[in-house]
């Protein structure tokens, strides 16, 4: 059998002078490539390839085993002294990988480093934390600016009150699964040319729980949990912004086997405001004024989040000019101070003029001076010079 085995260095794709680090690096690369869970199209081939890679790495990573292999080849690990260059201290394959006793779940040992920090063949039987929940909450612009206390109803699972979360009917209790003896795992042993490989998978009968329920609870149908709408009191802080989230500790799904509940995350969505827009702590709005107000100046009512305030429009203001109202913006989130409000002036051009109004404007235009429209005069002078040149 030993003569038919592949060279261990060739299996890992390294030469016989490779360093320990090079061997480890090659193994990691191949292990990720041929892991059965990542090769759904041809899992049998991937599993066989992984067995070869595991055997090669298990020997070559150990200085003593590697020295034995370099000296005697595969015969050093056939468990006897025959045909292997006279080596009588052979290592049996089951001593390396574990035999039917279940002491050597090689896939669990190897992939614990890469895929989750533990042996794959072991099922956690202790407390398990519950899943987190997400709730999307839409609020108004004003509620985001000034905060609000409210109550929301969150759909979630809770332990059944009839069976206290066991899933078993009153007067009964879950029993130990006879197939896996309560471990939640079923072990399989595969004999290969490289030795015996022990693997474990979740028990199909109890779905990895280690328990079976012969008489299910009629209220939760054996699930141990029921779906409810839980009322949650919520305090929305002043200054919260679109996309911010609030965390309610232990407001998520209940844990398993006494584990703590997950958390509830509330994501904030703010409705658009018909007047105001927001940028950080500042708010912006547009204020229309008349042609006369823009020309002569005026005092007008400007909207703010706190109500209207009197705003002074300077004489001769141009459309698009931005005026600032200090301290009328958004409250700093969980802090002191407010932003400002910026008002963009929009001068309205009069429409549907009467003959008299039209005559007045025409007379004004005829009798106007360059001082009335300095920007227009400057533009016309530049235009005149352009065509003259």
Describe the protein's topology:
Elements: H1 8-12, H2 20-34, H3 43-60, H4 63-72, H5 93-97, H6 106-111, E1 133-139, H7 141-146, E2 148-159, E3 175-176, E4 185-192, E5 195-202, E6 211-212, E7 225-236, E8 245-248, E9 264-270, E10 277-279, E11 282-289, H8 291-296, E12 298-304, E13 307-313, E14 322-325, E15 341-347, H9 355-367, H10 374-388
Parallel strand pairs: 1-9, 11-15
Antiparallel strand pairs: 2-7, 3-6, 4-5, 8-9, 10-11, 12-13, 14-15
Mean pLDDT: 81
Report low-confidence residues grouped into runs of 5 or more. 79-124
The total count of helices amounts to: 10
Name the helicity range.
25-40%
Largest sheet: 4 strands, mixed
**Shape category:** elongated
Please tally the β strands and state the result: 15
Classify the beta-strand content into a percent band.
Answer: 25-35%
Series of H and E elements: HHHHHHEHEEEEEEEEEEHEEEEHH
Q: If strands are numbered along the chain, what order do they take across the biggest sheet?
A: 10-11-15-14
- Cα(first) to Cα(last) distance is 100 Å
The secondary-structure class comes to: alpha+beta
Instruction: Kindly provide the radius of gyration, computed on alpha-carbon positions and rounded to a whole number of angstroms.
Output: 39 Å
């Amino acid at each position: 059998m030993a003569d038919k085995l592949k060279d261990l260095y060739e299996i890992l794709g390294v030469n016989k002078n490779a360093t320990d680090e090079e061997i480890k690096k090659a193994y990691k690369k191949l292990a990720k490539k041929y892991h059965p869970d990542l090769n759904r199209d041809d899992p049998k081939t991937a599993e066989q390839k992984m067995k070869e890679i595991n055997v090669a790495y298990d020997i070559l990573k150990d200085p003593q085993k590697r020295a034995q292999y370099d000296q005697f080849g595969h015969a050093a690990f056939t468990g006897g002294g025959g045909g292997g260059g006279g080596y009588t201290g052979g290592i049996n394959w089951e001593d390396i990988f574990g035999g039917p006793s279940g002491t050597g779940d090689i896939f669990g040992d190897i992939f614990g480093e890469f895929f989750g920090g533990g042996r794959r063949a072991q099922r956690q039987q202790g407390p398990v934390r519950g899943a987190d929940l997400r709730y999307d909450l839409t609020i108004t612009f004003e509620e985001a600016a000034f905060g609000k206390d409210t109550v929301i109803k969150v759909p979630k699972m809770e332990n059944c009150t009839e069976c206290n979360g066991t899933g078993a009917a009153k007067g009964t209790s879950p029993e130990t699964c006879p197939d896996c003896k309560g471990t939640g795992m079923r072990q399989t042993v595969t004999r290969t040319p490289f030795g015996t490989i022990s693997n474990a998978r979740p028990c199909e009968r109890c779905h990895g729980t280690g328990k079976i329920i012969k008489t299910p609870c009629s209220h939760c149908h054996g699930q141990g949990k029921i779906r409810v709408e839980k009322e949650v009191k919520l305090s929305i802080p002043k200054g919260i912004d679109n996309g911010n989230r609030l965390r309610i500790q232990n407001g998520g799904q209940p844990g398993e086997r006494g584990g703590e509940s997950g958390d509830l995350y509330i994501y904030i969505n703010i409705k658009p405001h018909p007047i105001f827009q927001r940028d950080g702590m500042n708010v912006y709005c547009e204020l229309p004024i008349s042609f006369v107000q823009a020309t002569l100046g005026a005092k007008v009512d400007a909207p703010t989040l706190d109500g209207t305030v009197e705003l002074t429009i300077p004489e001769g203001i141009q459309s698009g000019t931005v005026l600032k109202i200090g301290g009328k913006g958004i409250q700093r989130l969980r802090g002191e101070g407010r932003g400002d409000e910026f008002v963009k002036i929009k001068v309205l051009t009069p429409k549907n003029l009467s003959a008299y109004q039209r005559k007045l404007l025409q007379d004004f235009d005829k009798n106007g001076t360059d001082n009335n429209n300095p920007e227009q005069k400057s533009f016309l002078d530049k235009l005149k010079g352009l065509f003259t040149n």
